Amino acid sequence: MPEKFISPTDLKTILHSKRANIYYLEKCRVQVNGGRVEYITQAGNESYYWNIPVANTTAVMLGMGTSVSQAAMREFARAGVMVGFCGTDGTPLYSANEVDIEVSWLSPQSEYRPTEYLQCWVSFWFNEEKRLAAAKRFQEIRLQQIEKYWFSSPRNLFKPDIKRLGDIINRARESLSKAENHTSLLLQEALLTKSLYKLVSQTVGYGEFTRAKRGGGIDLANRFLDQGNYLAYGLAAVAAWVTGIPHALAVMHGKTRRGGLVFDLADLIKDAIVMPLAFLAAMEGEDAQGFRQRCISQFQQSEALDLMIITLQETARSLAGNQL
C-alpha cells in the first residue's frame, strides 16, 4: 500500500491548546531525517537521535551549542511550532534577528492566520478606557489563578498562611479595580507581586529575597523564576499566534515593554504556578532540567495555554461589543 502523504493541514489537527510538548534543547543538532524532525546529541564517537513530534509541540527553545537546519525550520513552520533561540537554561531569550531582548520568537508565517479576534481586538484597543478594562480583566483572572492554586496547593511543602494570602488578594482586587489609568494599575500590580514574593519566600523558609532581573548568578530562586517565566512566555507567544493577535497590541505592558502582550498573558499564570515551584525547587536544590519538567507538567495539568487562548478570545469579543 503506498505511503499516505501528510499535508501541512494535517500537521495542525492537534489544537495548540491540547499539545503536550515544550522543548529546551542544548548542545545538539536539529535536522530532518526520513521526514521526521530529530535532534542529535554526541557522546564520544556515538550519535544519538531523538524524535521531536512537531504536530504535538507548542514551542522549541534552542539553547547554547545548538544548530537547526533549514528543513527543520520548514517543518516547525508547517506545524505551527514557535521557535526561540536562548541562552543557558532558557534565559535570556534571543531571536535570529534581534539580540538580547526580553521576549522574541520566530513565529510561523502564514497569510491565512485567523482575523476574527484581531479585528475584535483592534476595534477596542485604541480606546484608552476599554484597553484599561481589558488590563483589569487580565489582572482579575491572574488573581483567580492564584486563589485556585495557592489555596489548594497539592504539595505539602507549600502551605501559605491562608488568612494572609486572602488579605493580599482582597487588597489587590480592590486597588486594581479602582485604578484610574495604566500607570496606577502597573503600580498596584507591582505591589501585589512584591507581597507575593515575600509571602512565598517566608512560607518555604527561603529567607530574605530580592527579585533581580535576569537572576542568573544571583541565587537559585531568581534563576528558577527566570527559567519558569520564559517557559510561560513561550506559551503566551503561542496563544497570541493561535488567535492572530500581534504581540505589540498589549493591554498593560505595551507602552514600556516590547512584546507586551506576551507579558500580559504570561502574568495570568506566572504567580500562580511558576513562583511557588521556583522557591520550592530552590529549597530542594533541584537542577534546572528537573525544575523545567516540573513547570511544563504543571502547565499541562492546569491547562495554562487553554486559559491564555480563552482569555484572549473572550476579552476580544466582550470589549469589541457591537462595533464590528
TrEMBL record:
Q: Provide the GO biological process annotations.
A: defense response to virus; maintenance of CRISPR repeat elements
E.C. code: 3.1.-.-
| Named cofactor requirement(s) | Mg(2+); Mn(2+)
Which GO terms fall under molecular function for this chain's record? DNA binding; DNA endonuclease activity; hydrolase activity; metal ion binding
**Which residues bind Mn(2+) per the record?**
E189, H253, D267
Name the InterPro entries for this protein.
CRISPR-assoc_Cas1, CRISPR-assoc_Cas1_C, CRISPR-assoc_Cas1_N, CRISPR-assoc_Cas1_YPEST-subtyp
Q: What UniProt keywords apply to this chain's record, in alphabetical order?
A: Antiviral defense, DNA-binding, Endonuclease, Hydrolase, Magnesium, Manganese, Metal-binding, Nuclease
Q: Which domain of life is it from?
A: Bacteria
Free-text function comment from the UniProt entry = CRISPR (clustered regularly interspaced short palindromic repeat), is an adaptive immune system that provides protection against mobile genetic elements (viruses, transposable elements and conjugative plasmids). CRISPR clusters contain spacers, sequences complementary to antecedent mobile elements, and target invading nucleic acids. CRISPR clusters are transcribed and processed into CRISPR RNA (crRNA). Acts as a dsDNA endonuclease. Involved in the integration of spacer DNA into the CRISPR cassette.
Entry's NCBIfam families?
cas1, cas1_YPEST
Q: Which family does it belong to?
A: Belongs to the CRISPR-associated endonuclease Cas1 family.
Its subunit composition reads: Homodimer, forms a heterotetramer with a Cas2 homodimer.
Name it: CRISPR-associated endonuclease Cas1
Q: What species does this protein belong to?
A: Intestinirhabdus alba
Q: What is the lineage of its organism?
A: Bacteria, Pseudomonadati, Pseudomonadota, Gammaproteobacteria, Enterobacterales
